[in-house]
Amino acid sequence: MVPGGWQSGKSSPNNRQGRKVGMSDGLGEQREDGDGDANTDAWWDRLGGDMTALILSKLPLRSMLRASAVCKAWRAAAIRASTLPRHGRRRTHPWLFLHGRSNGVLPHAGRRNAFAFDPDEPSSWVSFTLPPDFVAGAGGFAFAAPSPSRLAFAPLLRELCGGITAMRHAPPLASPRYNNPVVAAVAAPGSRDGERLLLLVAGGGGFPGGLVDIDDHLPTELYECDPHGDAAAGVWVQCAPLPEELGSAASSSSSSSLSISPALVGGRFLFACGIHSCAVSAFDLSRRAWAAPPREVCSPPVVPRLAAAFVATARRGRRPLLAGVVEEEGQRRALGVWEVEPDTLAASRVGEMPAEMAAAVLGSGGVRCVGQDGVIYVVGEEEHGGYRACACVVIGGNDGRGGEEELACRWSWLPPLPAAAGRSGIRRMAAFCSPVLLRNYFHAD
C-alpha cells in the first residue's frame, strides 16, 4: 500500500471522482497516468516535498514505482527519495535473478527469459527480459556481450517503468572474451551515489562448453565511466590476469563466471573463489593487482573439505562469507556458512542448512550460491529438481552502536518458480545476485 491508502482498483483520497490512475503492475504494461488534480497537488504541497520523499523512501521499490505513477507530485517525491543519503533510506536486501542456460548460452527464444525474486515482496517471482547475449549481472546492471570484444550494459529490470532502456556500449576490450567472463561493477573511487561506475572484467577464456582450448590467461581489465552518460568515452586499463590456481580440472571453462564465484568486499576488494578448486584470491581495486598466491579456504576442522565453495558478503559488505557444500562418501550431505577474515582467510562457523532443506536442495544435482549484504541464496540448477531455492539471512554481528552479537543463520524457502519456467525448455538455471537501484529508474528525469 502506498501513502494515502491508494491501491490498484480502489478509491482513495487521490481518486475520489473515479479518475483513472496510472500504475505499473510490476513488470506489465504501463497504463495511462493521471496528472493529478489541484486538490491532490495542494495537499502534498502542504506536507512538503522533503517529508513526502522520506515517506516514499520507506516503501519497497516496486511500491514506490507504483506510487510514482499516481500523480506528478508523487513522482517528484519519488525522484527526490532516490537521491536521499543511504542512512535516510529504507534498508533493502539484494534481489535473486535466475535465467536459463543451454551449454553456457542464454536461450534466444521467448520474450521473457528470466525471473527475479524481490525480498521485499516475497510471495512470488517477477518475470522479465534479459538480452540474448547477456553475460553477467552486477551492481544493479545487466551486462551483455554483443561481440567477444564488446561489453554493453543497462539497469536491471528497467521494464519496471514500462520500457526498456537502450544498452550503453563501453569501448572495445583489449582482449576478447569468448566464455562468460567475471564482471563486477562498483562505485568509482571518489564518486557520489553512483555518479561514476568502475567496471571490472576478468577471465572468460575459451569457448562455451570448452569445445576449443583458448588461453585463459587474459588480463583483468578496468574501466571507469558515467553509467548514464557517454559510456564509450575512455579506454580499458589492463592488469594482471585471474590467478590460474582458481581453476580446476573439474571444469572445462575454469576462468568463466560459471566456475568462479565473485564478491565485492568493502567497496575495494573483489574476492574470487574457484567453485571447484575452493581457492580464493582478492583483487585490490586501489592497487589494481591480485593478492598472491591464492589460498584454499578448506582448513579442517573449522572448514572441512568442500565439494564446492562460493563467496558472498556479510551485512554492509564489510567481510566475506563462505558457503560450502560438504560431501561424505560421495554424497552431498550439508551446506555450511562461515565468516572469513579478509586478510588471513581464517574462518569461523556461522551455521548450517537444516537437514530437511539440504536433502531437498542438495540432493537434486548441482547448486549455485550467490549473495551479498548478509543474504545468501542457494539454488538448485537442475530441471528435475524443480530449481528449488532458499535463502540464508546472516543475523547478528556489529549492531551499529558499538555492540557485537554472535552471527547466526536464518533459513527460509523461496516460492516455487512460475509454471512458465518448466515449459520454457530450459535444462539448467544460472543465478546471480544484485541490488536493484531506484536511482536508475528516474535518472532520465
From TrEMBL:
Matching Gene3D superfamilies: 1.20.1280.50, Kelch-type beta propeller
Annotated spans, Disordered: 1-38
InterPro entries: F-box-like_dom_sf (IPR036047), F-box_dom (IPR001810), Kelch-typ_b-propeller (IPR015915)
Domain F-box per the UniProt entry, residue ranges: 54-79
Record Pfam families: F-box-like (PF12937)
Protein name stated in the entry: F-box domain-containing protein
Organism: Urochloa decumbens
